[in-house]
Amino acid sequence: RSVMIHAQTVREDQLDRMAQLGMIPSFFSSHVFFWGDYHRDSVLGPVRGARISPTKSALDRNMIVTTHNDSPIVPPDMIRLLWATSQRETRSGNILGAEQRIPIYDALKSVTVNAAYQNFEEGIKGSIAVGKNADFVILSENPLKLQPADLLKLKVMQTISRGKTVFVAK
């Protein structure tokens, strides 16, 4: 499976071609928060800057989409990644490319089911099913019932890895 890592500034015509080829764009969506203001104001300008990680454009083409953090460049914070992918808020509090926001459900798929598929691991991870690794977290709230702006309020209450509890919040 061909994957374009970052796919940061991919254009609409390039997404069309990637879709034809069955390529998977993997977006570094946290980039919108950490460096979105800089790219908009100093590198790409407002029009191209608003298209950093054009996740919605890829989903509109029925592409399998993944998102990732680039640790240690940014902290390995999956909740912030979900928030950045669905909220697209920069450090200054501006929304960068509101038209590229995606629903929380699709953001969750981008780091679970789709990420496993991207790495040929859909048979052992990515969803909870008999026979798969029991790797998951228990969160303080159901992210699907929150507004994207509220995702950063989520807390990891418990982490289970291969069926064993490895973290419990105090």
List the defining traits of the structure above.
170 residues, alpha/beta, three-stranded parallel β-sheet, three-stranded antiparallel β-sheet, 7 helices, 35% helix, globular
Please characterize this protein's 3D structure:
By secondary structure, this protein is α/β, with parallel strands linked by helices. The termini are far apart. The protein has a 3-stranded parallel β-sheet. It has a 3-stranded antiparallel β-sheet with strand order 4-5-6, with no helix packed on it. Helix 2 crosses helix 5 (78-87). The protein has helices at residues 12-21, 30-43, 45-49, 55-60, 78-87, 104-111, 113-118; strands at 3-6, 24-27, 66-67, 136-139, 156-161, 164-168. The chain contains 7 helices and 6 strands; from the N terminus they run βαβαααβαααβββ.
What's the arrangement of secondary structure elements?
Elements lengths: L2 E4 L5 H10 L2 E4 L2 H14 L1 H5 L5 H6 L5 E2 L10 H10 L16 H8 L1 H6 L17 E4 L16 E6 L2 E5 L2
Parallel strand pairs: 1-2, 2-3
Antiparallel strand pairs: 4-5, 5-6
Helix pairs in contact: 2-5, 5-6
User: How many DSSP helices?
Assistant: 7
Give the strand order, joined by hyphens, for the main sheet: 1-2-3
Q: Mind summarizing the main beta sheet?
A: 3 strands, parallel
- Helix and strand element order: EHEHHHEHHHEEE
Strand content: 5-15%
Average pLDDT works out at 96
Q: Which residue ranges are poorly predicted, with pLDDT under 50 across at least 5 consecutive positions?
A: none
Query: How much is the radius of gyration in Å?
Result: 16 Å
Overall 3D shape: globular
What distance lies between the first and last C-alpha atoms, to the nearest angstrom? 41 Å
Number of DSSP E strands: 6
Helix content class? 25-40%
The assigned structural class equals alpha/beta
